[in-house]
Each structure stands twice: as C-alpha cells, then as structure tokens.
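Continued from yesterday's entry.
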Amino acid sequence: MVPMVPIFPSSTPAGYVEPNATSCQQWEQPHHLFFHLGNLSLLLGLVLPTTLGLHMILLRLFLMTGCSLFITWATLYRCNLDVLVWNVIFLLVNFMHFFFLLYKRRPIKIDRELQLVYKRLFKPLHVKEALFQRLTGQFCTIQTLKKGQAYAVEDKTSVDERLSILLKGKMKVSYRGHFLHNIYSNSFIDSPEFRSTEMHRGEKFQVTIMAEENCKFLCWSRERLTYFLESDTFLNEVFRYLVGKDITNKLYSLNDPKLSDKAVKKMDRQPSLCSQLSMMQMRNSMASTSDTDDILNQILRGGSTGKCNDNIEGDS
C-alpha cells in the first residue's frame, strides 16, 4: 500500500498561531497609563467601606471615572470599537444610578407652618424629612378656627373622623361648663379620644374643645391615617409614642390646671399605661355619673394619679 500524499501542501507554516487561539507565544507590551488608571478607579470603588454615608454615591462616581478612562484608552490608543461601545454603555448606566442617588438626597423643603411641629415632635425620633412630607402631604389638611369656635362638642361630635395637632393658638377643654385644661401649640388636640376608641368606633366626644384664640391645626383623616400607619411599622410606633406622651402631658395638666405653656413644653416624660388609663377612666367616669363636681375636685387634687399609684402598689 502506498500512502496518499496531498496534492496541495499545507499553507500554514509550522509554529503559526491563529489569531483567536488561547496560547500566548509572545506577551505584548503593557498598556497605556489610561488603562491602568481606569482599573485603579474600579478598584478604589470596590474597596470603599459600606459604613460611609456616601458609599453608593462614591462607588458610582469611581465606576464612572473608570469607564471614562477606558473610553479614552480605547479611542486614542487601542482603536478598539467593542471596548469603546461596552464602556459607553457602562458609563450611561452608572450615570443614571448616580443621578438617582443625588435626587434621593436632595434637601426636602417642609412647609413653613409645619417646621416647628417637625422639629419639636418628629425630628427627635429620627423621622426623616421625606417620610414626614409623605405623612403630611397626602391626606392631611391645615384648618383654622376663630376665637370662640368649637373643635368638638360633647355628646355631638364623632371621634372617628380625625386626629389633629394644634399648630398655633390655644384651646380650652371643658366638661358641662367646668374647665379641665388648656391645649397649647405642638400638642395633639384629641389624643385621648384617638387612643381610647381604637377598638370601639362610633363614640362621641365626652368633652367640649373650644378655641380661646385664633387657632390653626394640622388635621388627618383618621381612617386614611390608620391605613397609612399600618403600612409603616416605624411611623406607627412613633405615633403610638407621641400620642401616649401627649396623654401623659394632659394628665399632668388635669392635676394642675394652672400649668403654664412653658411648663407643658418642658415635660418630656415617656407615656405610661397608668397615665393613659387614668385619662380614659376620667372621661368615662364623667360620662357615667351625675356627681360631676366631686369628680372634678378629685382630679384637681391629683386623685386620679394617687388612685393609679395605689392600684400599682396593690398589684405589686
């Protein structure tokens, strides 16, 4: 047998490596400085500690810088179209993320009438401006009352409609003509009713709340506010704290009706279950008995607080 010999000799010389082969016969010279600066920029962005407040913004900034350097290197020194196109795409994506992060950190302008309420009540509890704006911008209105007008009338006004914070002015709370306490600015107007009727709807105010001065107040729709708080656990806990604290302050006002506005603002006690129950028991007791004067005298002497303390000692 005679071996077959190809008629045409192979045109591939020995030792030739195809362009797409993976073996490297000879290493190229190092790339231009722009290439190394681009990789250095990517490295700096990836090693940034996540504890930095501007971590994501700085990361996107370094990635954009690296892509820009790669584009310069591919255009001026490499003349490689695919490297250029991919880095342009990466640059655009990172720029959109960078712009969105800056937009999220933009300063939030709170309405001038609400700035004091935010600084006094919500800012100390670490409520962000954006969250406060959501809370007051969707289902909240600012309303006014002239001197002598009633916010609520006992046995007539429903407690299910709203929850309000007094922004400006002063209100007087009374029961059957007997003065109970005042409500000053940056305080909830109907916090006891809001807390005591969370489980029982359809009740009426047991007191009359009257404007002693021209008043302006922030008013939420109770139904929509409750629905919104159910979707935000943090804000729900903030409201529970603020309402409880306001009830505590009103209880101290009941025990000392001559308490001044400055003294009320200085009270910074956490709400206790005892104080909240005392306020609710006071309202219920007033509505269920005809001996109004004795109850009012007991409240003014601090009887509700003493009774609560006695109950605590008895339980312990």
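--- second protein ---
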Amino acid sequence: MDGEELTAQQTALYDRQIRVWGVDAQKRLSKAQILVSGLNGTSVEFCKNIVLAGVGSLTLMDDRLVTEDALQANFLIPRDETVYSGRSLSELCCESLRDFNPMVRVLAEKGDLAQCEMEFLDKFDVVVVTGCSLKTKIEINEKCRKRAKRIAFYAIECRDSCGEIFVDLQNYTYAQKKSVGTAECHLSYPSLEDAILLPWRNLPRKVSKLYYAMRVIEKFELSEGRNPGELSNFDLPAVLKLRKELCDAQSLNESHVPETLLERILVAGPMLYPPVCPILGGILGQEVIKAISGKGDPLKNFFYFDAADGKGVIEDISNPSSI
C-alpha cells in the first residue's frame, strides 16, 4: 500500500470511518477484492455494509432466478416483476449495490464457485459463501487454503432465528491494542473440515448448543443431498434419529442438542428471520473489515446468534496444539 494514497473524493466520502480506523486501514479496504457466493437475506446485508465501507471491488455469484422466498428475504431485488423477470440474483443485486456507493466496483460473475478452477480465487482477498452444502463449503475452503496468497474464508448461515458464522484466516497477524501502544499478535485457524472433525467429547462443556445443532442439521442435509433451507418439520423424526446416532458415537448426552432447537430450525424451511439477517450481516462485515485492515481482535472461529435469548456467542473450536 506504500505510495498509494486515497483520492480527495475517497477521503471526503469516507471521512467519518477514517476517523474511526485510520487512513491506512481505509487504504487497505479500498484495494480489497471480495467475493460472495450465494445471495440471501444475510449475505446481502453483508454486501451492503462492505460496499458502504468502501472496498475495492465486490463480485457476486448466484445464477438463481427470483422466487417468492427471495423477494421476501432480499431487499436488493426490485419489486417490479418486469425488472427482475428472467434475470439472476447476482445481476439484480449488482445493480442495486452500485447505487449504494458508485466508488466501489460491483460485478456479477456467472457460474458455480464450487466448479471454478482454483486460479479463479487468486484475484480475491476474501471469499464468503452461504446457502450451499457442507461438502461445498469444505471444498471451497480447501481451495482457498491451497493458494499461494492468504485468502480469508467465511461461511455464514441463517436458520430461522438462529445464525452461524465460520471464520478461517489461516495464519493471521494483527495489531492488538494495549494500555500503551499496540502489540503484534498471531493466530492460527483450522480449516472448516478440521474444526468440525474435532471430537465433541473433547470440546469445552459449555459450548453453544447451536454448534451441535448445526452439525446435526448439516450432516442430515449432506446425507439427503439437500442444501440449507430445503428441510422442513417433516424431517424431524429422521433428524432426531441422526442426533441419537451422533451423540452416541461422540459420547455426548442428547440434552446438548435440544429437540426444541432442532424443530425450530427445521420448521423455518427456506424462510429467514428478518431481524437476524442484519445482525449476522453486520457482524460479518465488521469481521471482514478487521481482517483486511489488520486492526482489532478477529473472531476465532465460530460465532452464534439466537434471537430467542438475544445473545451472540464466540466459540473457538480448534485443536489446542494448533492454537
């Protein structure tokens, strides 16, 4: 970033946030290239936040056409059917986001990220995925980790009034504020696959019940070949059976995965709980800004929110030897 200054227009537009995180952080943001695969109520909130923050570019990937569910969850889609008919979510969201901040390049990319060559990822600093299977998330995360440069990876899902964010910054260095000055800190993150493979019996006793519930739901979706939002309350008996099998195998009491929590997630189906989307999108935006700027303690490595109690919880699900 040395020698690359913000323009007078950028300085004027981002004046308030420059006062918060400094000109160097804003310069890093203005060069950052972000990729978002999957557009729903949660990810579009993130897109709005990151565009307003002034990143260099935002690329969107989602070739799906507009449905009634998408209209209810995605505020970036025009309500005029003559405008959205026959057009992809990425195209429509791209046009709307450009209006939020004309200084950010917002692009629509066709195709499926899971099928893209690994070289495609080289132009991005951050990759965010949502709405896809656990298998796809793991594959994309592994592709990011195999590139020569460090690519920050995030997976985010909103299920009913609950939400989960996973973060993988690989080997990450940042500046931590101290009472006097700052100190350089280092964190080592596990991949998504490594994190969820950790035996449940080895996790802290007070790990969020949402962590276990999400793993049960993901495992069931994977076995059924379905994506997030494609389950319903009719699947509850089969999900409860899988819960018992997993808890028995992991030597964990089933009370750690309450039936009421699983039922609440399943009943929602494809519907997102609107008040939770901006909360998750705001948290994710904040974390991506911290990762790009190198300022502030980053989240490691799972975040959970449940509107039932209004609490946000950070869980570090890592092998102690890798911390």
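The chain has a mean pLDDT of 92. The first helix runs from residue 8 to 13. Will compare against the first tomorrow.
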